[in-house]
Write a structure and sequence with these properties.
The complex is a heterodimer of chains A (301) and B (177). Chain A is an alpha/beta fold. Chain A is built from twelve helices and nine strands. Chain A has a five-stranded parallel β-sheet with strand order 2-1-3-7-9, sandwiched between helices. A two-stranded antiparallel sheet of chain A has the order 4-8. The longest helix of chain A has 18 residues, at 13-30. Chain A is globular, with a radius of gyration of 21 Å. The model of chain A has no long low-confidence stretch (mean pLDDT 90). With 177 residues, chain B is of the alpha+beta class. Chain B is built from five helices and six strands. In chain B, the strands form two sheets. In chain B, strands 1-6-3-2 form a four-stranded mixed β-sheet. In chain B, strands 4-5 form a two-stranded antiparallel sheet. The radius of gyration of chain B is 22 Å and the shape is elongated. The two termini of chain B are 40 Å apart. Classes of the chains: A alpha/beta (301), B alpha+beta (177). Chain B: Residues 105-177 form the Cytochrome b5 heme-binding domain.
């Protein structure tokens, strides 16, 4: 008989994750679950999302790589290089695969502002890779601000004419994971949900509700200060950072409860305002990140 | 000075609460209960901070009050202390402003209300001027790249079509001339 998960079974994150991973491992061994192929493309961006992914816990990055999926292509992590790597990328096209893309798609000069490799002696542009793989993938995850809405790559004056992944794959449904960078849990959790239960429930902007449903403001530990009108005047103050330009009231993520760097802390926990990195339109729409002229009164301006 | 008596009462309640929580923390070994007590202690201190700010405000206002209205000798009100549920009323800082809703501003005058240097933040939509100083979507008097002190009728129509309910939640300061 299957043992029910009830106290006195430990209900810590680690224990729950261990039960889930053990169950998944057993089902893999029995052949009940098949590992799926994952292609991780890095286009016009800073590779910040894959670095954030290395910080993943429960499941860890190693687990993801070894047990969750078959990582067929990732230019940061694979051993192959040059044409060999591109050939590996093209070999996936005829198989079933999940496509994860970080970075925006640069359109200028037919995509030549972002070359990610070479194929048959020709430069392979990000635009080419995004359209070719995007048309064939079974599921598409846009990872990070640049892939979901252009982000920093598309910020004014946008010299590379960067756009979001959705703008070049207009007829495909894309799960969007905004964030600069994405929290490893948001990516790994969405990927695990995809493998175990199919596509997660999303909002009207394509964001998984399990991570992006709640306003930071509504779970903020400093909310009592906002409600009472007690505002920080400078960085480091322990009260509400609203007057300094905190974007928590317009940003939907679970940062206040999930936190970062192994669930240790988050910007507001360290007395600096939320800059709305997970809001569509970041960074231009979230600027200025910090304002002091709202709280500081100068006699002769 | 009924307010001050109320604030003092609330402050005393909070001090009692804080002492009780500190005592609980000192005798409890179970760390799982500690976080709850600490959270309550944190909230208590936040409330005390708020009340002390209000007291300081009132102290600064006192000169103003006494110079204009001679304070009537207050008879002892036995009922006052027995109403701890009554929320304290924050005194209005700007007694010289006309009543809300009566202001008529030109576009140029509106530009002064940009939320900077201690000024309030106003925006106009459809000829009506709204106060967004403490609106949560207008942190630092900016909203998705827009700055306060301007007419945003067109911007509102393009981003919030069919969401006129948003406007109903904003305090009205007046009209555009």
């Amino acid at each position: 008989m299957k043992k029910a998960v009830l106290p006195p079974d430990s209900l810590t994150n680690e224990a729950i994750a261990a039960r889930l991973t053990n169950a998944a491992d057993e089902n893999l061994k029995k052949g009940l679950i098949n590992k799926r192929n994952l292609v991780y493309l890095e286009l016009n961006g800073c590779s910040g999302n894959i670095i954030s992914l290395l910080n993943g816990q429960n499941p860890s990055f190693e687990y993801t790589l070894n047990s969750l999926v078959d990582l067929r292509y990732s230019n940061s992590l694979m051993a192959a290089e040059g044409e060999q790597a591109s050939e590996k990328l093209m070999a996936v096209l005829d198989e079933d695969f999940i496509l994860a893309v970080e970075g925006a798609v640069a359109l200028k000069n037919n995509g030549l502002y972002n070359v990610i490799g070479s194929l048959d002696g020709q430069p392979l542009t990000g635009l080419q890779a995004a359209t070719t793989l995007g048309e064939r993938a079974s599921h598409i995850l846009a990872v990070g601000a640049c892939a979901t809405h252009g982000g920093v790559s598309a910020a004014k004056p946008n010299p590379s004419e960067s756009v979001s992944l959705q703008q070049v794959l207009t007829d495909r449904e894309i799960i969007k994971l905004p964030g600069c960078p994405v929290n490893p849990d948001w990516f790994l959790g969405t990927l695990a949900h995809l493998l175990l239960y199919g596509e997660p429930e999303t909002d009207n902007l394509g964001r998984p509700l399990m991570f992006y449903s709640t306003l930071i403001h509504d779970r903020c530990p400093r909310r009592p200060f906002f409600d009472r009108g007690i505002f920080a005047e400078k960085l480091g103050d322990k009260t509400c950072l609203f007057k300094l330009g905190c974007r928590g009231p317009v940003t939907r993520t679970d940062c206040p409860t999930r936190q970062w760097n192994g669930h240790v802390n988050w910007p507001i926990g360290d007395d600096t305002p939320c800059i709305g990195c997970s809001q569509f339109g970041f960074p231009d729409a979230m600027a200025p990140f910090i304002s002091f002229d709202t709280t500081r009164v100068v006699k002769d301006e | 000075m009924q307010n001050i008596a109320l604030i003092r009462l609330q402050m005393n309640h909070l001090v009692t609460q804080a002492r009780q929580d500190i005592h609980s923390l000192s005798v409890m070994d179970d760390s799982s209960d500690n976080s709850q007590t600490l959270q309550r202690l944190w909230d208590t201190v936040s409330s005390m901070h708020f009340l002390s700010e209000m007291l300081a405000n009132q102290a600064m206002m006192a000169g103003y009050y006494f110079s204009t209205v001679p304070a009537p000798a207050l008879p002892a009100q036995p009922g006052t202390a027995a109403q701890p549920g009554v929320p304290p009323v924050t005194p209005l800082p700007n007694q010289t402003l006309p009543p809300p809703g009566d202001l008529t501003l030109t576009l140029q005058e509106l530009e002064n209300y940009d939320g900077k240097n201690g000024r309030p933040a106003y925006v106009a939509v459809g000829g009506v001027v709204y106060d967004v100083t403490n609106n949560r979507a207008w942190a630092a008097a900016t909203h998705f790249g827009l700055v306060a002190g301007k007419d945003y009728t067109a911007e509102f129509a393009s981003c919030h079509a069919g969401q006129e309910a948003i406007l109903a939640t904003l305090p009205i300061v007046g009209r555009l001339a």
